[in-house]
Design brief:
GO terms for molecular function: FAD binding; proline dehydrogenase activity. This protein is of the alpha/beta class. The protein has one domain (8-69, 154-459): TIM Barrel (Alpha-Beta Barrel). It has helices at residues 8-11, 71-74, 80-93, 96-107, 114-132, 138-150, 167-186, 199-202, 205-220, 254-277, 291-305, 324-337, 352-361, 372-392, 404-417, 436-444, 458-478, 481-498, and strands spanning 154-159, 192-197, 281-283, 313-318, 343-347, 396-400, 426-431, 449-455. 51% of the residues lie in helices and 9% in strands. An eight-stranded parallel barrel has the order 1-2-3-4-5-6-7-8, surrounded by seven helices.
Length: 499
């Protein structure tokens, strides 16, 4: 297997301790940064912030190496043609009417048949698709990952399917996820940080809804026995919304229990594949209608597969939910008690419109924080909690954020806690095609950074693009950080070319 070349800017910050380094495959942590540079027996990068100086912890929110003011340096790896396309797409998706028009086209009959379909699909492919997706097949995805690897970033590979509604679709999707793991192992070592799975793609949606209803009712009435339920971590907190389930649900039918066993087998096969490949599996979060069942699948699998200090199964916490922090604390405490190392991806969240409409239709307050500032605080609080946790024990965290201030705060906290930078316990992440300035800024400072990279045929990935367009319209419209940086760099390159 090819060995990843660590960028010089990272190497210069690492003092390699040859006396204690261990390089054998049997002792390397899961998907470690590099077997010849970092090992489980080495204290994480003491040379980055030498404790021998006995200086008090830094209180700055912007460590010296985390800089975003040099657009030329940030976008140095990006070709002008790619930068032009990205700038155009990001500006377009920041305009509400443009997003509405694009979504109307992708949902309309224009993309269903005939010459117009070919034209529309070609237009989508050359714009939104190529900006936000890794490619149509494994070969395309591999080229995208290699490019990221060359510029010091990593990739989270996502087989770009959405929901499945029957076992046939679930089986077909499982093959796609298994193939994604195979693709990952064929790429340069450590260039793929995670394989992503959507439980809604390998378990029928109706079954997930039924399981979630039963889990919610059991939370209301602990006397309810669920014979199919395996050991899990806490799924709910006292503040968790339970209004989705208005009345006591019927038990799963024999057919539903059979479908559940098939779903368990699919997830088990995928987990075992990831264990063999030494690549973590990250479970995406969904809307609250089915999230309890998704958490159940995630945590029951984590109990089985997460051993020693190396999580193989990661869950996702959406911090725009009011109960997010409480659930994280409960789950982390239970995992620690059971000696199950847990990995979490922290995100602000999606499905805002759907959640608010559903709660309102049932006569309840939205489960989402009332203000964006409360969401920011929840994300930052959860990040701080996880950084403290991994600094003092097992576990991993992926901080998936497009917010520059959250990135600065987390980097400063990691610095303060002495976690180090190139550290297998901490990963920053952004969507492919978004927040490039933040990604490169964090990478230039030496942190591990991944891009969330869906791949698959254009027509298959359109549901993903539609969902992202709806989710991110507010984000792109509200934040001009990346657009400003890209305009600045394009202006500089134009002047350099002319003069």
């Amino acid at each position: 297997m090819a060995t990843r070349v660590i960028p010089p800017r990272i190497l210069k910050n690492i003092r390699y301790n040859t006396a204690t380094a261990t390089t054998t495959a049997t002792t390397k942590p899961l998907n470690y940064a590099h077997p010849s540079i970092i090992s489980s027996s080495v204290v994480p990068q003491p040379s980055l912030y030498d404790k021998a100086n006995q200086k008090p912890p830094s209180t700055t929110v912007n460590p010296p190496l985390l800089k975003f003011d040099d657009a030329e340096k940030l976008f140095a790896p990006v070709s002008t043609s790619k930068l032009l396309r990205s700038t155009a797409v990001i500006h377009a998706t920041a305009m509400g009417p443009m997003v509405d028009f694009g979504m109307w086209i992708m949902k309309s009959k224009l993309v269903q048949k005939g010459v117009l379909k070919d034209l529309v699909m070609a237009s989508i492919k050359k714009t939104f698709y190529e900006n936000f997706c890794a490619g149509e097949d494994a070969a395309d995805a591999g080229r995208s990952i290699r490019w990221l690897n060359d510029v010091g970033l990593r990739g989270m590979l996502v087989y770009g399917v959405e929901d499945a509604h029957d076992n046939e679709g679930c089986d077909r999707n499982l093959k796609g996820f298994i193939h994604t793991v195979d693709v990952s192992t064929s790429l340069p070592y450590n260039s793929v940080s995670f394989v992503i799975v959507k439980i809604t793609a390998i378990c029928p949606m109706k079954l997930l809804e039924r399981m979630s209803d039963l889990l919610r009712w059991q939370q209301k009435d602990p006397s309810l026995i669920l014979p199919w339920k395996q050991d899990s971590l806490p799924i709910f907190a006292e503040s968790s919304p339970l209004y989705h389930t208005q009345k006591r649900p019927n038990p799963l039918t024999p057919e539903e229990e059979s479908d559940l066993e098939l779903a368990n087998q699919r997830l088990l096969e995928l987990c075992q594949k990831c264990v063999q490949a030494n690549i973590p599996l990250l479970v995406d979060a969904e809307h609250t209608t089915v999230q309890p069942a998704i958490d159940y699948f995630t945590y029951s699998s984590a109990i089985i597969h997460n051993k020693d200090e190396n999580p193989i199964v990661f869950g996702t916490i959406q911090t725009y939910l009011k109960d997010a922090k409480e659930r994280l604390l409960l789950t982390a405490k239970a995992a620690e008690k059971m000696r199950v190392p847990m990995g979490y991806k922290l995100v602000r969240g999606a499905y805002m419109s759907l959640e608010s409409k559903l709660a309102q239709s049932l006569g309840y307050a939205s489960p989402i924080h009332n203000t964006i500032h409360a969401t920011h605080k929840c994300f930052n609080d959860c990040s701080s909690f996880m950084l403290h946790k991994i600094a003092n024990g097992p576990g991993n965290v992926v901080l998936a954020t497009h917010n520059v201030e959250s990135g600065k705060l987390a980097a400063a906290k990691a610095h303060e806690l002495g976690i180090g930078k190139v550290n297998h316990k901490l990963e920053f992440a952004q969507l492919y095609g978004m927040s490039e300035g933040l990604s490169f800024g964090l990478s230039n400072a030496g942190f591990q950074v991944s891009k969330y990279m869906p791949f698959g045929p254009v027509d298959m990935v359109i549901p993903y693009l539609l969902r992202r367009a709806e989710e991110n319209r507010g984000l792109l419209a509200a934040s001009g950080f990346d657009r400003q940086l890209m305009r600045k760099e394009l202006g500089r390159r134009l002047k350099a070319a002319v003069f």
